[in-house]
Design brief:
Layout (H helix, E strand, L loop, with lengths): L4 E4 L2 E9 L6 E5 L2 E5 L8 H14 L3 E5 L5 E7 L5
């Protein structure tokens, strides 16, 4: 089983599983799943902001969470273009 990615008009949607309070930000593939280690705690959207900021930095694209705002299982849209 591979990493779940869906090509959409605006870019690519990736399913990610978030592990909290990890002490560092890191992207991993474990058992066909994208696992993201986040430094932040799930308080007032801190994890979501960290995820968006770090994915944007890594991929040099605009990034949005499109599902799973309050869940550890999230769908992240990595836009095809920087703006738009």
């Amino acid at each position: 089983m591979g990493v779940e990615m869906v090509k959409v008009t605006d870019g690519v949607v990736v399913d990610v599983f978030v592990k909290l309070d990890s002490g560092r930000f890191e992207l991993r593939v474990e058992g066909g799943e994208v696992v993201v280690l986040c430094r932040e705690s799930p308080v007032k959207g801190r994890v979501n902001r960290e995820l968006i900021k770090e994915f944007s930095r890594i991929f040099q694209k605009r990034v949005e969470i499109v599902a799973g705002f309050s869940s550890r299982q999230k769908k992240v849209l990595i836009r095809r273009h920087q703006y738009g």
